[in-house]
Design a protein that fits this description.
about 160 residues; alpha+beta; Aminopeptidase; three-stranded antiparallel β-sheet
Length: about 160
């Protein structure tokens, strides 16, 4: 299996949307996400929803993501496995359990270290079983690459890795 990780650019937008629209949620998940909400303030979200012109939430999210990618506001990575894109920890079913999420998280850590960050945090949700919308990844993923639990807020866990 060949894994290649690239930073999201406008040139990779088609791969980004292909992932979300054709592979990420193929296990009958009713949810559609384009990860654009994490780049927006509450006011920006409200403005986006107020100007939605009757579109459903999936189309609103897609339109916002298109604009953010074009403006280089939406930052992230695409992991290509044998040429097919994976965007977040919502790994397409046929690629789960093959080290894709670990490789993606390790790339984020390596880039953060190279860019001078002192720490990286992740926010998995504590669950007893796999959850279909687990885009933040499971706690064990973070533990595998050296994160430690620093806080817990109900079922939300704060995992942190110091970068020295």
């Amino acid at each position: 299996m060949n894994i290649e990780i690239k930073k999201l650019t406008p040139e990779l937008a088609a791969d980004y949307f292909d992932f979300f629209e054709n592979r990420a949620f193929t296990d009958d998940s009713p949810y559609r996400c384009y990860c654009q909400m994490y780049q927006m303030s509450k006011e920006q979200v409200k403005t986006t929803l107020d100007n939605a012109d009757g579109l459903d939430n999936g189309l609103i999210s897609r339109k916002a993501a298109e604009q953010q990618i074009e403006a280089s506001i939406l930052r992230g990575y695409l992991t290509f496995v044998d040429g097919m894109a994976v965007v977040c920890f919502e790994i397409a079913p046929e690629y789960r359990g093959k080290g894709v999420a670990t490789a993606l998280l390790q790339r984020v850590i390596d880039d953060a270290r190279a860019e001078g960050y002192t720490a990286v945090e992740g926010y998995p949700i504590l669950r007893d079983e796999r959850y279909e919308w687990d885009c933040t990844g499971p706690m064990r993923l973070y533990e595998k690459v050296g994160f430690i639990k620093v806080d817990e807020r109900e079922k939300n866990i704060v995992m942190r890795k110091e970068l020295k």
